[in-house]
Predict the structure.
Amino acid sequence: MNALETTRLIIRPFTMDDLEAVHQLLDLDLRWSGDGISIEQRREKLQLQVALAQWTTTDCLYGDRGIVLKGSGQLTGICGFRPWLCSPQERCLYQLPERSEPACHSLELGVGYALSSQHRGQGYATEAVKALLEYGFTRLRVGRIVALTDRGNTSSVNVMRRVGMQIGVNPDPEALYPWVVGIIENPAHRCAGDEIKTATG
Ligand SMILES: CC(C)(COP(=O)(O)OP(=O)(O)OC[C@H]1O[C@@H](n2cnc3c(N)ncnc32)[C@H](O)[C@@H]1OP(=O)(O)O)[C@@H](O)C(=O)NCCC(=O)NCCS
């Protein structure tokens, strides 16, 4: 996935030119990796991320992309696909329809997203996640996409709702991450298993 374009945004891989903006966003604003990540430490992480994007095919999904404003090119946030190894118990708890043997873990395609504090409340996260869903469903043709969040992250759950996800909540008040799972099925998708079932009657 190289770059995706929406009405107001471009979702694109990072380059080393993004270092200062990424440090400001992830380390000083969101404190993504806890306190005290220096710009030099961020440089090392970003170098790995940039290298990974260059070594792999254009459809490599691993790693976050930058969400930048079309006009100014300003970095507003990050988003991307990420894997979630979902246990049979979690599939049952969050009511994810079975696609694998009930006793097996399943590898789900997740989306993640975050905006800088100054760019919230304008629909950018919703716009970016919709673009990822569109890409996942039409280009990659995956069967479903999920989003995970923790207790009390109402803004994140609202993004899930706005992009059309069904919300599954862990009823256990002591439960840890993920506490909420958003799920959206590909409306056009017929997985190989469905086709085989149809073909054999
Ligand atoms: C989760 C997060 C990205 C949500 O940000 P957000 O700004 O609330 O979400 P959006 O960008 O989609 O904006 C939606 C808001 O903008 C408003 N809005 C304004 N213009 C809009 C437009 N053109 N289109 C859609 N919404 C618009 C909506 O009404 C909504 O406001 P509301 O929440 O008061 O109802 C943000 O809170 C964040 O970065 N949190 C920290 C990281 C995090 O928790 N990430 C999720 C972990 S999985």
Residues 81 and 105 are 19 Å apart (CA to CA). Residues 194-201 have pLDDT under 50 and may be disordered. The pocket of coenzyme A is lined by residues 112-115, 120-126, 147, 149, 153, 155-156, 158-159 (CB under 6 Å).
